[in-house]
Every structure is written in structure tokens, then in C-alpha cells.
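Entry 14. Structure prediction run on the chain below.
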Amino acid sequence: MIEPLALLVGLGVPALLAAAIVTVGRNPAAGRAGWIAGAALGAGYVAGHAGFLGWPAFPARVAEQWLPYAAALGAALGVLTARAPRWLGWALRIALLATGLALWLKPVMTYRWTGAISAVWLAGLLLAALAVGAGLDRVLPALAPPAAWTVLATTFAGTALALALSGSLALGQLAGSAAAAASGGLVASLVVTSHPVGRDSVLVIVVLSVGLVLCGTFYSELPRTSALLLGAAPLAASVVPASAHARGGVRGALCVAAAVGIVAATAVVLAFASSPAPSAY
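Output returned:
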């Protein structure tokens, strides 16, 4: 049973914090500050994680406790590399994702895999995460801000449901914090003229998506098919014609939500179908 106060802090605070950052950061003098969305999402998630599970120790004792550190670092790197050469941004992206994968999978590598198998898994997952990031580099900046925030809110909401149905309410709550932060950004982008969700925000998005899905796959019972669909869900926004979302607004957000939602909903249905039957005792 989730306490009402935990829901308020774990979901309400991320939404309000993200909305405030997007609203305050709309200053035209900042130019096309594509890092603001990442800062809003990262700050919102960190607040929600602390609200649901408390602030983790350092070093973290379990895999998901590395998530707030990774999210905070990903958001910070997005800010710091906003005006840096592209190669430096990619180098830091590779470094953070490789480190995150190693930390999230450390128990599995220690007790289940040999060194060779660990290397193969890490290399494959890193390439997959980088591929998703490269796709988001193209998809998100091309969307109007409300549509881009809708992509994130829909993806993280689907992730939350799939994780909760796969036997981990805690991971579902954490993904819910990310969804709440993205929803706050969405509302703010509909009210004020906000900056686009740029490439500088992609790192924190990928870190949270990959980290949550990996923890659900290896430490809970999230089906791998659902994990793949959740990873690919935000890229489904690319099938929406530019004319449907270019002007922003509710209509554009709904068009994108439909495309991304179909993929995310499929992942949720598969997670539900694979969920263990309730015990009679």
C-alpha cells in the first residue's frame, strides 16, 4: 500500500519541479537551450526517487539506487556540454552509459556471467543504448516542445505500468516519477513558449529509460520483448507527419501520443500476459 504522502512527493513534486524549470527557463536570451528539458526531467526524477525510496547511500547497494546519481550526472553533462564540440558530448555519453551499464549489471556479472559473457552483454547493450540515443537526437529536436514532452510522458508512463505488472512496484513508482516530471514539462510547454527538447537532453532520457528497463529485466520479470518495445517506443514519433505536430498544441501532442502509445501499450500488454498468476494463499 502506497502512502498518500509518498504519492504526493513521488509524483506531485517531480511534476511541479519540472514545470517550474521549463517555465523559468523559457527566457529568450538563452537561445535554443535544448538542455533545459533534460535538467527538468533529471531534477524531477531525482526528487521523485527520493520521495518514494529516500536518498540512496553512496556507493549504492542495489542497482536501481544508482539511477538518481546517473540522472543527475546526465542532466549536468547536458548543461556543461551544450556549447562543447559534438565529439566531446558523444565521448561523455559513451562514458556515462558504459559506467551505468556496468553498475546496473554488476550483481549479474558477479554471480551469473563469466567475463566473456559480461563483455558481450555490455558491448551489445551499450551499442543498443547509443543507437536509441542517436535516434532521439534526430526525433526529439524536430518535434514541437509539447509533442516532444508527450513522447517522454507516454514512454515513461508505459514503462511504469509494465514494470509494476512485472512484479516490481518500486521500479514502477520510479518510472512513474519520470512520467510525472515529463507530464509537468508537457503542461508547462502548452502554457508558455518553451525551448525544444534538444540533443543536450537526450543523455538523461536514455540513462533513465535504459536503467529502469534493465533493472526490470534482470531483477524483476519484465519480458525482454517488452523491454525492446519500451526502448523503441519514443522513436515511433518519427512516423507522425511533420504537419501534424509542427505548430505544437494539444492536437500535435495527441498525434504523437497515439503513435508512441501504441508501442508502449503493446509492451504493457505483453508484460501483463507474462505476469505471474496471483497466489491462492
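Residues 4-274 form one domain.
Filed with the rest of this week's runs.
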